[in-house]
Amino acid sequence: MKVSPEEIFVRRYDEVRAGLRITDDFDVVELAATLRKLLIDGKALIDRANQKYGLKIRFTVNNLKGGSKLPNKPDFQFYADGINPAKIKKSSGIKSLKLKKFLKLEIAETKDDKFNISEIIKYLANKKGGIHYDENLDKRESLIADTFDNLNILGFSAFTLGVRAISEVVLDSLAPLYNEIVKIPDSIPLIANFTLGKCQTVQFSNKQALHSEDFNIEIDPAFGWGSILKISKKPTSGKHTIFKASNDSNLPELEIYINDNGDLCSSFTAKDKVTLITRAVNFSKSKIFDSFFFFLTEICIDGDEINLYMYINNELVEHKSSIVKIIDKFFKYTIIGGNTHEHDDVDFSLREIVMSSKCLTESERSELANYFWLKWKN
After folding, report:
1. CATH number of 190-376: 3.30.450.20, 2.40.10.10, 3.30.565.10, 2.60.120.200?
2. Labelling 41: which of 110, 122, 210, 212 has CA 20 to 30 A away?
3. Mean pLDDT in the chain?
4. Could you tell me if residue 73 is left (phi over 0), alpha (psi between -120 and 50 degrees) or otherwise beta?
5. Residue 280: its pLDDT value, please?
6. Over the range 324-347, which residues count as b (16 or more CB within 10 Å of their CB) and which as e?
């Protein structure tokens, strides 16, 4: 088993993002554990993940000036919730820190002590159950416990506010590396990329459909339609259209659909009576029916030779070819959704669509599949 540092980084980053939905103390220690794995353990994971890209990673925070200017210093000062410049603007400006200095950033103080990001994360992860639960505390850990454990600010625990603010800065600062890892390969020429925010979905049901009448895309030498797709229903008769592209004469026409046998099909009609069809037979009985999967169909044109490919989860399902002269090599219209039986409603969902003008190499297809996997694995 081999999992790359890049994938582990992406997983940890996504865990931090999901962890912002803190609802109780358990969520706080879980989030602290993820921060420890991402920022502190061994050689920092972000450094390993960044080796290939060489980005200059800095953690941007408000230039907080700890310490009270009052004659009598307060017993406790807490400024962790003010470190994020995206949330609060400070007149003292901002500063960009390397990882080691960020971890040493002080976020609270008493009359006699100051507490930094690293030791708060370690305390929650190592002693409060994030990774380990250990009631044997050293002197410093006992001081943190005595200072923070029962401290509430505006109804929130100090740990909750602090860990959330730290996480927000981490997400903002590491976003460039995340986006460099989770991206469509540069070698794939894009016609269009329709995507949603993380973990969002467009569901097509009943009579819903999306139409475009000004697509105007040449399909020579190639046209590819890839997606993260979930099909939840097969028609009782006829077929449910997932995607269709055509022009004024209706030909050529590409259609992706599921039929009443439960077969997932891609058909390409070049001219009258010349239709190529690739099928995932009995797809509705497969283990991935009603689950999201990576789907790709490609039309590849080489002179008068036409090739039609279907891939599911980066595995070739079927390939068909024919020799035929195509007069019109443009798609003008597209539709997502639709059915051929008025009493039988569609039911499928999409998270992202990638349309390209190239038949992908095996390496490019694997990179695209990996992009989809990293982005939509949840």
Report:
1. 2.60.120.200
2. 110
3. 87
4. beta
5. 98
6. bebebbbbbbbbbbbbeeeebebb
Cα distance between residue 125 and residue 123, in whole Å: 6
User: What's the pLDDT tens digit per position in 138-191?
Assistant: 788 888 888 877 676 655 688 888 999 999 999 999 999 999 999 999 999 999
CA distance 38 to 32: 10
Q: Is 271 exposed, middle or buried (0-12, 13-18, 19+ CB in 10 A)?
A: middle
Reference 119, options 142, 96, 103; nearest CA is: 103
pLDDT digits (tens, 9 = 90+) for 342-351: 555 668 999 9
Domain parsing of the chain, residue ranges: 5-181, 190-376
Cβ atoms of residues 129 and 29 within 8 Å: yes
Q: Which two tokens stand for residue 202?
A: 């467009």
| Alpha carbon distance, N-terminus to C-terminus of the chain | 20
Residue 226, both tokens: 């890839």
**Beta strand pairing status for 94-97 and 59-62?**
antiparallel
Please give the Cα distance from 260 to 235 (Å, whole number): 5
pLDDT at 269 over 60: yes
What is the pTM assigned to this prediction? 0.83
The label of the residue with tokens 């409060």 reads 128
Tell which residue, 377, 378, 370, has the closest CA to residue 188: 370
309-315 long-range contacts (CB < 8 A, ≥24 apart) are 309/278, 309/359, 310/266, 310/278, 310/279, 310/280, 311/365, 312/264, 312/280, 312/288, 313/288, 313/369, 314/365, 314/366, 314/369
Give me the pLDDT at residue 130, please: 53
Q: How confident is the model at residue 316 (pLDDT cuts 50, 70, 90)?
A: very high
